[in-house]
Amino acid sequence: MRRLIVSGAIALAALVTGAVAIAAGSTPQAPDRKWHFEGPFGTYDRAAAQRGYQVYQEVCSACHSLSLLAYRNLMELGLTENQVKGLIKDIVVPDLNDEGQPVERPARLSDRFKKPFANDLVAAAANNGKAPPDLSVIVKARANGPNYLYALLTGYVPFDKLTPEQIKAYSVTKDDNFNTYFPGHRIAMAPPLADDKVTYADGTKATLGQQSSDVTEFLAWASEPHMEDRKRTGVRVILFLLAMAGLMYAVKRQVWSDKH
């Protein structure tokens, strides 16, 4: 009996694993793109990241928080203090007055990014029972993060463009959102971006691809704002170790030269 139970458990595990593998295999891999911040010498494209902040603020911030960043961090994108103050001048954040009563006041540079909802319960209630994820480290939290995020934002397919096979296989209705690169393909989030969804301050044409690329650049920076410092430190350490290795080899040759 014990062997029968164990065999049954193994068979069940194999069945579940196979089902997961089949489901995973039905989701295409996000295409590789060239990002400025990739590689040992990669840096952030600050102009793109600034545009990406505009996309986040005007579109994404209505549902998604960015709780690990403060507004002053935007100065690391090449913006001056006055420019950042100008960007946040219309943002009001909750606070307490001297009597301990809740009030709203204009945002300060020291404030963290304003949350769109008071708490996760309110967020879930406003979004069909599931709170939208915080985007602070979303690029690091997803495998192949930048490529996946870009593919997700550009991978929506309208219902009338789906094949009958896709509709049947994934039980898609007109009220669902179909995304080519989302696991299972049915995603709760409606397409957040479209051509000319924002009007860029620098005059860049706001196509769907441009907005998706820019906000991905911004969120990649948000996930690791000190990446450039880390890479510079790594290069300096490697150069130091190479120089030290050369020096040690020269010393060794000098010390042992009279032994031959």
Care to describe what's here?
The protein has 260 residues and is mainly α. The chain is 45% helix and 7% strand. It has 9 helices and 5 strands, in the order H-H-H-E-E-H-H-H-E-H-E-E-H-H. A 3-stranded antiparallel sheet has the order 3-4-5. Helix 2 (46-58) packs across helix 8 (208-223) and helix 6 runs antiparallel to helix 8 (208-223). The longest helix is centred in the last third of the chain and has 30 residues, at 227-256. The termini are far apart.
Summarize the structure.
45% of the residues lie in helices and 7% in strands.
Question: Could you outline the blueprint of secondary structure elements for this entry?
Answer:
Layout: H1 2-25, H2 46-58, H3 81-87, E1 92-96, E2 102-106, H4 120-125, H5 138-141, H6 145-154, E3 156-157, H7 164-169, E4 177-179, E5 186-187, H8 208-223, H9 227-256
Antiparallel strand pairs: 1-2, 3-4, 4-5
Helix pairs in contact: 2-8, 6-8
Features of this protein?
260 residues, mainly alpha, 9 helices, disordered N terminus
Cα separation of the termini: 76 Å
- Give the biggest sheet: 3 strands, antiparallel
N-to-C series of helices and strands: HHHEEHHHEHEEHH
Q: Give the helix proportion (percent range).
A: 40-55%
Number of E-type strands: 5
Which structural class do the helices and strands define? mainly alpha
Radius of gyration using CA atoms only:
25 Å
Specify the overall morphology. Answer: globular
Number of helices: 9
Strand ordering within the main sheet: 3-4-5
Give the uncertain stretches in residue-range form: 1-25
Strand % is 5-15%
Average pLDDT score? 88
